Amino acid sequence: MSLASTEAHRVIVDFLALKGLIEKNEAEYLSERVRGIFEVFKSGFLSEGAFKLNPLSRKEIEFLKEFLSKNIDEITIEEAERAYEIGRRLFVKDLDERGFLLAMAATYIRGYLVSREVRKRKEAREQRQFT
């Protein structure tokens, strides 16, 4: 069920992105929201009453720290895909709801990047028509 929910959300965001409807401020909002949530992973433990080992590797934590602190326009689609996969695994395999939030933020960031390209192509086509 958790895999289905992340994939369903991703399909909807991909559809909106292909129409050029995802804005930068939406992706930035989600990135900032998730950045705060993932600060706890730097300590190596999760805290909700009891400690349990962090399911993320040091490399993944460093990647996410960098990914979530980057300017949205400097992120690549490949980086957004990697963050999505980490989030999806964290949600589906480790049953951590923060993984869902990470997957959705990465999906929106990717969606914004795709929307930006769609808008650029549309503008270029329109300019060619008027010249």
List the helices and strands and how they pair.
Blueprint: H1 2-18, H2 24-37, E1 45-48, E2 50-53, H3 58-69, H4 77-92, H5 97-129
Helix pairs in contact: 1-5, 2-3, 2-5, 3-4, 4-5
Task: List its traits.
single chain, 131 residues, mainly alpha, two-stranded antiparallel sheet, 5 helices, 2 strands
Low-confidence stretches: none
Q: Quickly give the structural class.
A: mainly alpha
How much strand?
5-15%
Helix/strand order = HHEEHHH
Strand order of the largest sheet: 1-2
Q: Would you count the extended β strands for me?
A: 2
Main sheet?
A: 2 strands, antiparallel
What distance lies between the first and last C-alpha atoms, to the nearest angstrom? 52 Å
Let me know the average pLDDT. Answer: 87
Task: Please give the share of residues in helix.
Answer: over 70%
Helix run count: 5
Q: Write down the domain tally.
A: 1
Compute the CA-based radius of gyration. Answer: 16 Å
Shape descriptor = elongated
How would you explain this protein's 3D organization?
- The protein is mainly alpha-helical and 131 residues long.
- The chain has one domain (2-129).
- The protein is 70% helix and 6% strand.
- The protein is built from five helices and two strands, in the order H-H-E-E-H-H-H.
- It is elongated.
- The N and C termini lie far apart (52 Å).
